[in-house]
């Protein structure tokens, strides 16, 4: 049993990428489902399906390389990290993901709506 769903999701996603697998099974939760929907919109995953208590995720690949190189968690249960919009900068090598009152957003969208929140994780991209 685990308490921190986000850490479990990121560990499984990174392990799947590092072992060059395309299919990933996750435990179903509302928070993880919202992150997976965000990943689908951004193109980091190609497809997902809810299978009762689990979620089947198919990771996007561009040629032989996955779109995402790795994900690094920032905010943890023992140390929450919050950001302000004025501290954000846009990069082409990574994407920062935040949890706001309107949902899961990335750096670009957070700057455009002038709203930020808990800094969840960084997604490093294969460019």
TrEMBL record:
Source organism, top-level taxon: Bacteria
GO biological process: translation
Molecular-function GO terms, alphabetical: structural constituent of ribosome
Keywords of this entry: Ribonucleoprotein, Ribosomal protein
Leader sequence segment: none
Keyword Protein biosynthesis: no
InterPro entries hit by this protein: Ribosomal_uS8 (IPR000630), Ribosomal_uS8_sf (IPR035987)
Any one cellular-component term (Gene Ontology): ribonucleoprotein complex
Similarity section: Belongs to the universal ribosomal protein uS8 family.
Subunit structure, as described in the record: Part of the 30S ribosomal subunit. Contacts proteins S5 and S12.
Protein name: Small ribosomal subunit protein uS8
């Amino acid at each position: 049993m685990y308490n921190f769903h986000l850490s479990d999701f990121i560990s499984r996603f990174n392990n799947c990428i590092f072992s060059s697998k395309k299919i990933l099974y996750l435990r179903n939760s509302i928070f993880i489902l919202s992150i997976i929907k965000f990943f689908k919109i951004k193109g980091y995953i190609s497809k997902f399906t809810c299978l009762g208590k689990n979620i089947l995720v198919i990771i996007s690949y561009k040629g032989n390389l996955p779109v995402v190189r790795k994900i690094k968690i920032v905010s943890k249960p023992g140390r929450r990290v919050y950001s302000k919009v004025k501290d954000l900068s846009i990069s082409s090598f990574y994407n920062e993901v935040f949890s706001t009152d309107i949902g899961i957003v990335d750096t670009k969208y957070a700057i455009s709506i002038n709203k930020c929140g808990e800094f969840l994780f960084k997604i490093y991209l294969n460019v």
